[in-house]
Amino acid sequence: MAGTETMVTARDVTKYYGLHRAVDRISFDLHSGEVLGFLGPNGAGKTTTMKMLTCFLAPTAGSIKVKGHDVSEEPLRVRQMMGYLPENAPLYPDMTVMGFLRFCAEVRGITGRERDLRVGRSAEQCGIADRMRDPIGILSKGLRQRVGLAQAILPDPEILILDEPTSGLDPNQIVEIRGIVRELGRTKTVILSTHILSEVELTCRRAIIVNQGRIVADAPLEELRGQLREERRRYLFAVGAGSSGVVPGEAEVRERLRAM
Amino acid sequence: MRTTWVIGKREFAAYFGSPLAYVVTSIFLFLLGLFFFFGVFHQDVGWPFYVRKVASLDNLFNGSQLLFLFLVPAITMRLFAEERRSGTLELLTTLPVRDIEVVLGKYFAAFAYLLVVLALTAVYPIYVATLGRLDWGAVAAGYVGLALVGLGYLAIGVFASSLTQHQVVAFVVALVVALPFFFLHKVSFLFGPGVGNVLEFLAFRPHFDGIARGVLDSSHILYFLGVAAIFVFLAHRLVGGRRWR
């Protein structure tokens, strides 16, 4: 993505919950048009990072700038540029899909015809146009996730932040949501977090792998995939290196890997 | 301001979608009827209407203030606690809105709902007016006083709800914080003139009485608005507190 604008600049971002260090000196840049996957096991600090990006939590140290605006100093300006789908897509169960989307539009200052237009368009895009009159409370998890997505893309934001958009869904729903995210990635800057490797492979062009609050890898996907393939090849080689057809034990494989 | 309105509108509509509001309102009206006509808690509320034989709404105003202690926390307890629990607070506060707009939107919605409940008590003045000469000025002054007392208790309720994600905790905290404002003037005689006067000043009741007498003394009105402002401010700090470094 050469020659494009820097959308997000994170520098040494650290977050403590009490004494527990959830995020530890994370730094990265995000350029316009990138689709970035935040990959890591549960508890790695993905969600905390998303919450800091959207100005829900303040970083304990370090700075995050979105198009030059600091999240701590100009949270309103930053949030105007963002669409955010929090983890588990929290929504108001007593509202209808239509009522909820209109509410989100109005809070952002989108009213009248423009509001209805955008609500209709984002609902269409997320495949919920035929459920507009249903109360959110009766919808399936997958549909709710779509409503959350529709809410996030409604203002046509420059940056989309999606926290675990497919967690807790059944396989069909996962495929559908991934399709929508891929589609969105063609035109927008997207950050999505997940603990599923294949999700990053299917939807993202760049991945940051986090573990215990730290970035352990940050590279375009092809590169990471290459590394992974190399590691897998070496592993298989090590496993298969024994003659005899007997599967070697763990200790033996480790020994062989070291020898390589 | 516009955002406050949008948030308040949603919150107000939410009251009519939940069974809790209907239940609580029904209980309030039922108990108010007992107070008014049957002299339940007559020490606090006054003798029953048919015993007093006076065309006045004193029983209504006294009874309402006692019942507000329970009605108001029930109205406010879900405002923030429920949103914290379900996670929608994160959704709401990551939209481009100021925390104070969220707090005020919810506060005004709760006030609007309380006004609806008060409007339902309009049957009392109408009924009493058919039996005797009712002083409508006193009725109006009493309702203004009730609305101001409501503003005070509602602010305490909003504050309590912003503390926790458990609605029951929010209810209890609101009740406990509101109690001193309800009864301090009754115990002020125990503390001599200095402290006693302070306690008298802190309680809602003397200020309500001032307003209900029809004396348009701005100090009483300012008192209620001041109490409301303090607790709304505290709620605002608590809602925004997660952003402290």
Question: Your description of this structure?
Answer:
Chain A is an alpha/beta fold and 260 residues long. Chain A has two domains: 1-81 and 158-224, 3-Layer(aba) Sandwich (Rossmann fold); 97-153, no CATH class. In chain A, 40% of the residues lie in helices and 25% in strands. In chain A, the strands form two sheets. In chain A, strands 6-7-8-3-9-10 form a six-stranded mixed sheet, sandwiched between helices. In chain A, strand 9 (206-211) and strand 10 (214-220) form a beta hairpin. In chain A, helix 3 (97-107) crosses helix 4 (112-125), helix 4 (112-125) packs across helix 5 (141-153) and helix 8 (221-240) packs across helix 9 (250-259). The longest helix of chain A has 20 residues, at 221-240. Chain B is mainly alpha-helical. Chain B is built from 14 helices and no strands. Chain B has helices spanning 2-16, 19-38, 42-45, 49-52, 58-76, 78-86, 88-93, 99-120, 123-131, 136-163, 167-187, 192-202, 204-212, 218-240. The longest helix of chain B has 28 residues, at 136-163. Chain B starts with a helix and ends in a 5-residue tail after the last helix. The A-B interface holds A 51, 54-61, 72, 75-76, 79-80, 82, 84, 86-88, 90-95, 103-104, 106-109, 148, 151 and B 2-3, 6-7, 10, 14, 17-18, 86-88, 90-98, 242-245.
Task: Map the helices and strands.
The complex is a heterodimer of chains A (260) and B (245).
Chain A: E1 6-17, E2 20-31, E3 35-39, H1 46-53, E4 61-66, E5 69-70, H2 75-80, E6 82-85, H3 97-107, H4 112-125, H5 141-153, E7 159-163, H6 171-185, E8 189-194, H7 197-203, E9 206-211, E10 214-220, H8 221-240, H9 250-259
Parallel strand pairs in A: 3-8, 3-9, 6-7, 7-8
Antiparallel strand pairs in A: 1-2, 1-4, 4-5, 9-10
Helix pairs in contact in A: 3-4, 4-5, 8-9
Chain B: H1 2-16, H2 19-38, H3 42-45, H4 49-52, H5 58-76, H6 78-86, H7 88-93, H8 99-120, H9 123-131, H10 136-163, H11 167-187, H12 192-202, H13 204-212, H14 218-240
Helix pairs in contact in B: 1-8, 2-5, 5-10, 5-11, 6-10, 8-10, 8-14, 10-11, 10-13, 10-14, 11-12, 13-14
